[in-house]
């Protein structure tokens, strides 16, 4: 998965539909999420599309699996995941993910239907991280 900085550099050079294509491409780059992990416990509430996020531990870092049944929403969750992927749980739990995503100006780039679930995606990622960090 690309770093958030690498994605931002590319995103800044693109406009309109090209940005949509980049988000779709990011969604395709996500690690495959097994169907068995797409449960009520991993479902992100408040999204217009179905979105699932599942944390795995790899040593002292978190590696997230995520998926969505909508291509652009899958790209948005990929963007959220790129901000936290392979970082320590304690760091992810305290991170200001919203601030990290501000350069993408998603609220003005995408419809409100597509962005309404972003705070819930961030909250679920941080809840998972906080739970794992506390263990």
From TrEMBL:
Superkingdom of the organism of origin: Bacteria
Signal peptide positions (record): none
Pfam families hit by this protein: SufE
Family label: Belongs to the SufE family.
Name recorded for this polypeptide: Sulfur acceptor protein CsdE
Lineage: Bacteria, Pseudomonadati, Pseudomonadota, Alphaproteobacteria, Sphingomonadales
Protein encoded by which gene: csdE_1
